[in-house]
Amino acid sequence: MQIQMVDVLGQYRKIQEEVDREVLKVITSGQFINGPWVQSFKANLAEYLGVKYVIPCGNGTDALQVALMALDLKPGDEVITAAFTFVATAEVIALLGLKPVFVDIDPATYTLDPAKIEAAITPRTRCIIPVHLYGLTADMEAINNIAKKHNLFVVEDAAQSIGSDYTFSDGRKGKSGTLGDIGTTSFYPSKNLGAYGDGGAIFTNDDVLGAKLLEICNHGSKVRYYHSSIGVNSRLDSMQAAVLDIKLRHLNEYNKVRNAAAAGYNARFAGVKGLITPHIPANATHVFHQYTVRILEGRAKRDAMQKALQERGIPSMIYYPVPLHLQEAYLSDACKEGDLPLTEELTGQVISLPMHSELDEAQIDYIANHFLECYNQ
Ligand SMILES: *Cc1c(COP(=O)(O)O)cnc(C)c1O
Predict the structure, then answer these.
(1) pLDDT at position 33
(2) What ranges make up the beta strands (E) of the chain?
(3) What's the 293 CA to ligand 1 centre distance in angstroms?
(4) Pair 94, 77: CB distance under 8 Å
(5) Is the CB of 56 inside a 6 Å radius of any atom of ligand 1?
(6) Whose CA is nearest to atom 4 of ligand 1?
(7) Residues 265, 266, 270, CA angle at the centre, nearest 5°?
(8) Is any atom of ligand 1 closer than 6 Å to the C-beta of 203?
């Protein structure tokens, strides 16, 4: 059986006619930048998310950078985030002359642990960036409460969690990425809503921030050739918007297949000693950007598992093998080895199995059986 980590072509084949027709329309229109496809996608995504402003941009990293730029932070200001994430989250903080302050994660959800945030707050702290890792929205209620108490901004890194629902204790519901001051996402091809190239978007319900984010993405300009601030050039092009607008209509169905696949893995891994399957809190839905298990035995066993699976033709990935505070570029006396015990432990235990919208039960069975055979060796 042929197994892929992600299957972008299998997904494409099912919508090929529509995508081909629309992409050809973009080409023959000549409106490659900011055409009607961008406006349509922007409006449809805003409606899907229930958010006032959607600002499309070049990629998920730009989205994070522009979000931070809109907050008017000063060099040396501190931004609290997780070290158990893709580098982009901390990269944009450092790039803007701000200081990333890493906080450990929650043992059940692998997202920022609210109980550990307050101890990391100093007079220079301005912002918290929770990362909704693997497709699960972080504990936004607790994070928003801490932010409110200390007058901090919250920027959600929702690159992996588009479509995830979150319910606050007062019953208020919202989509991942629309729960803080600003949310960001990525349309990198392998993401849950993936383009056929690069793309990203920024979300906010705040009128002032909405205008600022748009201005920054457009060279700091509100009126063409007049520049009121220093911005960047970050755009979603018409072809990507055309593809994304079609795929957005299938996003719930894609996330449903991902959930079914995850449930299939869970059922087969239930009760296996030393193997921890993903936890879903009662107030959030998971969109399984990744299906990631923890092998408690640790790095040697985990690495051996990956090798054994590979020999059987089953791909797997380690998200992420090195925590950000131990990456050469981000080494600092403020956060050393041993300071984030759970993050460090997890980097040696996690392994992500094939997860995408085209997985069927037979494939899940096949992968899970091989996984268990390797695990029990
Ligand atoms: C993918 C990803 C990004 C960056 O998105 P790009 O579009 O690749 O720039 C940022 N944060 C997280 C958590 C991601 O998974």
Answers:
(1) 96
(2) 53-57, 78-82, 99-103, 125-129, 153-157, 165-167, 173-175, 182-186, 200-204, 221-223, 226-227, 275-276, 291-295, 350-353
(3) 21
(4) no
(5) no
(6) 60
(7) 120
(8) no
pLDDT digits (tens, 9 = 90+) for 5-37: 999 999 999 999 999 999 999 999 999 999 999
Indicate if ligand 1 lies below 6 Å from the C-beta of 88. Answer: yes
Three-state DSSP at 351 gives strand
**CA of 199, closest atom in ligand 1:** 7
**Model pLDDT for residues 208-240, shown as the tens digit of each residue:** 999 999 999 999 999 999 999 999 999 999 999
Residue 160 in contact with ligand 1 by CB distance below 6 A: yes
**What is the CATH code of the structural domain delimited by 8-248?**
3.40.640.10
Is the shortest distance between the CB of 84 and ligand 1 below 6 Å? no
The Å distance, Cα 347 to ligand 1 centre, comes to 18
The mean pLDDT value for 175-201 works out to: 98
Q: Assign 357 a pLDDT band (cuts: 50, 70, 90).
A: very high
The CATH number that domain 251-375 falls under is 3.90.1150.10
Every domain of the chain and the residues it spans: 8-248, 251-375
Ligand 1 pocket, mutate which of 66, 68, 95, 160 (most atoms under 8 A from CB): 160
Mean pLDDT of all residues in 82-102: 97
Q: How confident is the model at residue 113 (pLDDT cuts 50, 70, 90)?
A: very high
C-alpha closest to that of 192 among 89, 287, 86 = 287
- Whether residue 65 has its Cβ less than 6 Å from ligand 1: no
